[in-house]
């Protein structure tokens, strides 16, 4: 799976890239939420994983909202989005049909979120 990943903290970004690679995924990483939108215009991805706070004016929730509602992104409006955050934003992510990953998370939680995103994309019922 091709994953587009945004995280402003370099150590975390590198650790997640390594972990996703071990899961068998190809990762393109950026450090700001705005850069996610730029990459979406350049390449095709299967999933977006983003921190909610990437140290810029645009948050992960803003990216998900833009993808889900902006006609420019009509062809990818159903792309799975996982938003990670240290604060409770779960209700907001659900409104945007995105998954929420509470920080700090472990390897198992990330794997479960990725699996759930794939199931949602395939239209399978979530257990």
UniProtKB/TrEMBL annotation:
Single Gene Ontology BP annotation: phosphorelay signal transduction system
Residues found modified as 4-aspartylphosphate: 51
TM regions (residue ranges): none
Keywords noted in UniProt: Phosphoprotein
PANTHER family per record: RESPONSE REGULATORY DOMAIN-CONTAINING PROTEIN, STRESS RESPONSE REGULATOR PROTEIN 1
Protein name: Response regulatory domain-containing protein
InterPro entries named in the record: Bact_response_regulator, CheY-like_superfamily, Sig_transdc_resp-reg_receiver
Record flagged with keyword Phosphoprotein: yes
Response regulatory domain mapped to chain residues: 2-118
Pfam families: Response_reg
SUPFAM superfamilies listed in its UniProt record: CheY-like
């Amino acid at each position: 799976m091709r994953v587009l990943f945004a995280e402003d903290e370099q150590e975390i970004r590198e650790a997640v890239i390594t972990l996703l690679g071990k899961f068998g995924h190809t990762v393109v990483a950026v450090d700001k939420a705005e850069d996610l939108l730029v990459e979406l215009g350049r390449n095709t991805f299967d999933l977006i994983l983003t921190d909610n706070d990437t140290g810029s004016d645009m948050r992960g929730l803003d990216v998900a909202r833009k993808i889900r509602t902006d006609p420019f992104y009509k062809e990818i409006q159903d792309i799975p989005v996982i938003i990670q955050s240290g604060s409770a934003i779960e209700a907001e992510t659900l409104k945007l049909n995105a998954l929420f990953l509470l920080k700090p998370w472990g390897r198992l939680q990330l794997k479960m979120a990725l699996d759930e995103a794939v199931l949602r994309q395939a239209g399978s019922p979530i257990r």
